[in-house]
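Researcher: I'd like a structural prediction for the single chain below. Treat it as a standalone chain; there are no partners to consider.
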Amino acid sequence: MEDLDELVFDLELDGEEVRRELRRRTWEAGGWATIAIVYEDKKRDGDEWVRKVALLRMKKVRGLWKKHALVTMRDEEAKQLAILIGEPRVE
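Model: Treating it as a single chain, here is the predicted structure.
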């Protein structure tokens, strides 16, 4: 893809929405980008949605963005990461 805004994270299977993006944030530096996406996955056994976070690492190759890595975590794991990042540095 030429532009990171073209990345679509929503997903439908057999016409049914099973993943929906809630919000995202992108950081770019040189030929690399990191995209944090907050999204919900629909549980297979009903109408309940589970909140998750995806971290995508993108690399620009010959003018096009290619996915380099993807890490997903559940809501609780993402909250633990946010707390860890927000804690003051201990020396």
